[in-house]
Amino acid sequence: RQTPIIAPSILAADFARLGEDTAAVLAAGADWVHFDVMDNHYVPNLTIGPMVLQSLRKYGIAAPIDVHLMVKPVDRIVPDFARAGASLISFHPEASEHVDRTLGLIKESGCQAGLVFNPATPLDYLDYVMDKLDLILIMSVNPGFGGQKFIPGTLEKLREARQRIDASGRAIRLEVDGGVTAENIGAIAAAGADTFVAGSAIFHAKDYRAEIAAMRKAIG
Ligand code: DX5
Ligand code: ZN
């Protein structure tokens, strides 16, 4: 199993002081920055794009930035995020007409690639593309908003995804996103996840460092 990664979702940060808040959460022990991109089309909310990512890089954020695209169409925006400094780009297969082509585009642009599965999306999209994946992201809420409740059926889906990764023999990360807290993260890790997105649980905590430490302890 790969070393656990904690990736705070800056969707729950203070957008008026995003650089500072992102630096603070990294200084408090976070590994990656999870960057949620919503287009008011694929999901009913609107957030941030490549310009904001570039500003974070200019501000001095050097940690890996894990871009979660909740946009449709996908392909046109991929090179913009790569140029802005994305490390990893994930997208929802339903939002792409040609999943294999989009994965190729992400890799060609120099980023790592991930596929995202909504709660009701079957894992079948993995069937012919495992060799192109660096990460599989299992949504544990319906995408669009932070602060929702973890959907318990996700645990079974994580176990299934873990089996597929182990069978592939490849070092693909298994990420979970939505409603992750220090209370449920132990069960989520036991189901096979190794990369944990948490928005409100971390940014709404009084002490980022204590919250991240509690999560690591619960992961074991
Ligand atoms: C939801 C986003 C998540 C969200 C998680 O569409 O993809 O990354 O910010 O937030 P919490 O941890 O508050 O559920
Ligand atoms: Zn996300």
Secondary-structure blueprint:
Layout: E1 5-8, H1 18-27, E2 33-38, H2 50-59, E3 65-70, H3 78-84, E4 88-91, H4 99-108, E5 112-117, E6 135-139, H5 154-168, E7 173-177, H6 185-190, E8 195-198, H7 200-203, H8 208-219
Parallel strand pairs: 1-8, 2-3, 3-4, 4-5, 5-6, 6-7, 7-8
Helix pairs in contact: 2-3
The structure holds D-xylitol-5-phosphate and zinc ion.
Fold and architecture overview:
This protein has one domain: TIM Barrel (Alpha-Beta Barrel). Helix content is 34%, strand content 18%. Strands 1-8-7-6-5-4-3-2 form an eight-stranded parallel β-sheet. The chain is of the alpha/beta class. The chain is built from eight helices and eight strands. The longest helix is centred in the C-terminal third of the chain and has 15 residues, at 154-168. The relative contact order is 0.17. The mean pLDDT is 98. It has helices spanning 18-27, 50-59, 78-84, 99-108, 154-168, 185-190, 200-203, 208-219; strands at 5-8, 33-38, 65-70, 88-91, 112-117, 135-139, 173-177, 195-198. α3 links the parallel β3 (65-70) and β4 (88-91). α2 runs parallel beside α3. The radius of gyration is 16 Å and the shape is globular. It binds D-xylitol-5-phosphate and zinc ion (ZN). Residues 9, 11-12, 34, 36, 68, 141, 143-144, 146-148, 177-180, 197-201 line the site of D-xylitol-5-phosphate (DX5).
